[in-house]
Amino acid sequence: MTLKWTVPELVKYRNDGLMIDETLSLQEDLTNRDREIRQVSPVNVSGYAEISRSKASFYLTVKGEMVLPCSITLEDVPFPFHIQMSDTFHWDASFSEEDHVDEETHEVVDQTIDLVPYIEEAILVEKPIRVISEKAKELPLPSGKGWDFVADGNRKQQLDPRLAKLKELLDD
């Protein structure tokens, strides 16, 4: 079974619904779309579809793991993801998106529904802006000549030495 169907194939499942349990290899597509993603494990897609005369609604759980670079050390950091997604595809010209505001709806093109691009997009949206490895969390904070890295929680009100003379004037 794949995650691509024609409308006539889906309509066969109208009474019973369609159960989905697939494992996809999205490594090449995701690493080409986002250079920060170094690796992607096989992605498990499970869930079901409800099919009517004019639409198909998919309710899916997407699980896997991607490897991203640590923001501090650039070493590989595994990042597991668990995504709940739902998408509705309609093929009837009388379908009104205004009636289905709270659903993600898509129009079927060429009588074919392919879920893979929507799954890839959900994974890319789930990717964090940055990750930090456990090893990097244990490293001392970086510093240099005339500067120190200060974490938000450790920030103190420090007076810029160049403004110290002004403060003396204001205190008088």
Molecular structure report:
With about 170 residues, this protein is an alpha+beta fold. The protein has one domain (about 5-140). Helices cover about 20% and strands about 35% of the residues. It has 5 helices and 10 strands, in the order E-H-E-H-E-E-E-E-E-E-H-H-E-E-H. The strands form 3 sheets. Strands 2, 3, 4, 5, 6 and 7 form a 6-stranded mixed beta sheet that branches. The chain has a two-stranded antiparallel sheet with strand order 1-8. The longest helix has 11 residues, at about 115-125. The chain is elongated.
Supply database-style keywords.
two-stranded antiparallel sheet, 172 residues, 10 strands, six-stranded mixed β-sheet, alpha+beta, 5 helices
Tell me the layout of helices and strands.
Layout: E1 4-6, H1 7-11, E2 18-24, H2 27-33, E3 39-40, E4 43-51, E5 55-69, E6 76-90, E7 105-107, E8 112-114, H3 116-126, H4 134-138, E9 143-144, E10 147-148, H5 164-171
Parallel strand pairs: 6-7
Antiparallel strand pairs: 1-8, 2-4, 3-5, 4-5, 5-6, 9-10
| Overall pLDDT score | 84
Strand content: 35-45%
Q: In which range does the helix fraction lie? A: 10-25%
User: What form results from the Cα inertia axes?
Assistant: elongated
Q: Would you count the extended β strands for me?
A: 10
Using only C-alpha atoms, the radius of gyration works out to 25 Å
Model regions low in confidence, pLDDT < 50 over at least 5 residues: none
Q: Structural class of the secondary elements?
A: alpha+beta
The span between the termini is 81 Å
Biggest sheet layout: 6 strands, mixed
Number of helices: 5
